[in-house]
Amino acid sequence: MLQLSPDRTRKILADAAFRELVSGRARLRWGLSILTLLMFFGFIALISTAKAALGASFAGSAMPVGFAIALLMVAAIIAFTGFYVQRSNTRFDELTRLVNQEFGR
Amino acid sequence: MIVRSLLIALCVAFPFAAMAQGTTATRVRGPDWIAIGMFLMIVAVTLVITWRSAGSTGSKAGFYTAGHAITPVQNGLATAGDFLSAAAFLGISALVYANGFDGFIYALGFLTGWPIVLFLMSERMRNLGSYTFADAAAFRLQRTPVRLVAATGSLVVVLFYLIAQLIGAGKVIQLLFGMNYIFAVLGVGVLMILYVIVGGMQATTWVQITKAVLLLCGGTLLALAALWHFDFSLGRLLAAASQVHPKGAAILVPGGLFAEPVSAISLGLALVFGTAGLPHILMRFFTVKDAAAARKSVFYATACVAYFCWIIPVLGFAAAAILMTDPSYFNVAASGQFNKIADLIGGPNMASIHLAHAMGGPLLLGFISAVAFATILAVVAGLTLAGASAVSHDIYGQVLAGGKASEVRELLVSKISAVAIGVVAVLLAYAFENQNVAFMAGLALSVAASCNFPVLAMAMFWRGTTTRGAVAGGLAGLVASVVLVVLSKTVWVAVFGFSTALFPYDNPALFSMPLAFLLVWLFSVTDRSERASCEREAFAAQFIQSEIGTALASKRPALAAAVS
């Protein structure tokens, strides 16, 4: 476990780079989580309200609309996770390094 | 050395036992020698992996986490492997086969858990813990009570999941090789214990990677073969399936499973948040060197699981379109009638296996059966290791020995618990032979979503969480989810024989999970003790470490493990 004096803890918490890291990551983390959950539970809500519409054919093909939406949701989930990892690798890891350097750890 | 000679003995003896069983029992389409050969090859490969990993289990870091030295790609594959159990591969394609589109939504629920694991769990877990998820939960809280709750939650989840997998394993092997159910379960049990006690996390990880690669290749091959039959047109495949399926075009529309909103949301919650509370999945984050690697490995795992989500409906619908027109895959009654779902030889769970036979004859059948078998072996090994580490690291090492247990003793306890868990699981799998597998797996996910996940999430994200709150919430979630399942139709009516269920829904998560969160909150805010205010104060240091990690952990994993 990390041993930090109260004074040092306060300093890190007040540090500009640390604050930027924390608030930026929190926005991304909770934003994407809420989006993911809304997507899935929205789809479940759609099923119980507009079942018939989901069974209709999609643009003249034999593919039902609901099926197409579900396939797209799978793609969206890969995109969300990819986006999060890409942002973290480029932006947040950089900030983390900065904070660690600043406090000489 | 003794262990190694045991291994050799097993290498030699197991094949003969399998063959002896194979020749005497009744079988479906004559002896599947190709299937048996491939099955033996897989067993041999996993035993070689285990043997080669035998040197890695001398230290705690080596045994529990493969020395934190697994790369993100490897760990991603292994994590996906942990998740894509036989229940996922055979079970969900069977759901699609029987119910059509609903099975796909089920798979989608499983997948939706992954981004949540990535966003909320992976990085903080890796920054705060070293061996088990209880490390992170108990970071600033009282060690004894919090670890006991976390370890109990882990063990309940592991045991239910393990029994479900073993029952599935027994049934698959029984059908494929004509082995007796009890011998099949026993064989899998012995192999999984061996992987864990001889090879630890390193062997378990490599068995998992082997299986994940095989499963992805096998699934792709089977899906391509099936799509080729329909000129690679998904639309044509769906049309063909709906023409021959007894439910007709209804299989293209969401129906029964998700029709009723309360049950649907409850099931959805268990699927989504259960994943974020599965101990064997959470444990995988400690096998990589730092939080960045944990995050990357979840991305690779998500990509694999998502890819599989695309494949599984293809397999299910293709099995319906192709098998349902061919009576040779069914138990046909004397009258020539058969039920296109229930009478499939070996039950609907065998849909993908039969599809393999229809697409590529005995060769593909052998390959896909062997893949299914490898899937089972790998998942049960991962579960056993997670259960054993909950007993040895959390209960023995941290609670009973107060964190002062010697490494050698803790490892010994761990190996003994792996054997004990294996024996208990085999006995229970024998006792519950005819229990519904999906129900057991569902119960495991509900407990994970109602006990492990709330405790962990609140301890990591909410400053106000105190020991009292975490313990009250965790226990309430655990008890509520188990009791509500017992009172629901699946147990109260089907097992105990009462006429109506006391709890009207199949899945408890919608009620037990919010209850757990509520009680964590309630018992924390009302906690006015000295200790509680210290714990709230300690959140700042935990928060810093959870965000930026320890410099030690990112540079020298072995050292970090030694000091933590």
Structural class of chain B: mainly alpha
- Second-tier CATH architecture of chain B: Up-down Bundle
Biggest interface in this structure? A-B, 54 and 56 residues
Low-pLDDT runs of 5+ residues of chain A are none
Tell me the layout of helices and strands:
The complex is a heterodimer of chains A (105) and B (564).
Chain A: H1 6-14, H2 16-49, H3 51-55, H4 65-102
Helix pairs in contact in A: 2-4
Chain B: H1 2-24, H2 33-53, H3 60-65, H4 72-83, H5 86-99, H6 101-128, H7 133-137, H8 143-177, H9 181-228, H10 234-244, H11 261-275, H12 279-283, H13 291-323, H14 351-400, H15 407-431, H16 437-461, H17 467-487, H18 489-493, H19 509-525, H20 530-537, H21 539-548, H22 551-555, H23 557-563
Helix pairs in contact in B: 1-2, 2-9, 2-14, 4-9, 4-13, 5-6, 5-13, 5-14, 6-11, 6-13, 6-21, 8-9, 8-14, 8-15, 8-16, 8-17, 9-13, 9-14, 9-15, 10-13, 11-16, 11-19, 13-14, 14-15, 16-17, 16-19, 17-19
Name some characteristics of this structure.
heterodimer, A: 105 residues, mainly alpha, 82% helix, 0% strand, elongated, B: 564 residues, Sodium/glucose cotransporter, 76% helix, disordered C terminus
